[in-house]
Amino acid sequence: MKGQANIVAALNEVLTIELTSINQYFLHARMYKNWGLNKLNSVCYKKSIKDMKQADELIERILFLEGLPNLQMLGKLYIGEETVEMLQCDSKFQLEQIPKLKNVIALCESEQDYVSRDLLEEILEYEEEHLDWLETQEYQISALGLENYLQTQVGSGD
């Protein structure tokens, strides 16, 4: 099924976001693992895997629309050097990503591509949930203090 060029281009923009996210969260996961922060490692690793699955769904949709998925583009990675900075970098990434997703969803709606819209709405829901999780971590750090917060992250990751 030949898709509209603007929809394919927009889906490729979202694909770029997902590919960037895979790399950022995977690196942060491995940094947390190296420091023994197993719970943070687990969440970030699962996020990178979920992003990979979302990228796969986008690739399949772009191919279905007879477009060419662009896997060569990556956006800017925000990599922190310590826990608080890493969480802030991830929040910054999420806050940049969510409005872009909403814009592409609106485009799909206006072009009556409801299948792409539904796919993107699922991605958006997950990204908003992850942003909420990040904001919760930042609140816990401010409420508990960094040292106490880090102690809670040492246990086994799910």
TrEMBL record:
Q: Cellular component per GO?
A: cytosol
Q: What are the GO MF terms of this UniProt record?
A: ferric iron binding; ferroxidase activity; heme binding
Q: Which reaction does it catalyse?
A: 4 Fe(2+) + O2 + 4 H(+) = 4 Fe(3+) + 2 H2O; Fe(2+)(in) = Fe(2+)(out)
Q: Give residues annotated as binding Fe cation 2.
A: E127, H130
Provide the binding site for heme b: M52
Q: Per the UniProt record, which EC number(s) apply here?
A: 1.16.3.1
For biological process, the GO terms are: intracellular iron ion homeostasis; iron ion transport
Q: What does this protein do?
A: Iron-storage protein, whose ferroxidase center binds Fe(2+), oxidizes it using dioxygen to Fe(3+), and participates in the subsequent Fe(3+) oxide mineral core formation within the central cavity of the BFR protein shell.
Q: What is this protein called?
A: Bacterioferritin
Where does this protein come from, organism-wise? Answer: Aliiglaciecola lipolytica E3
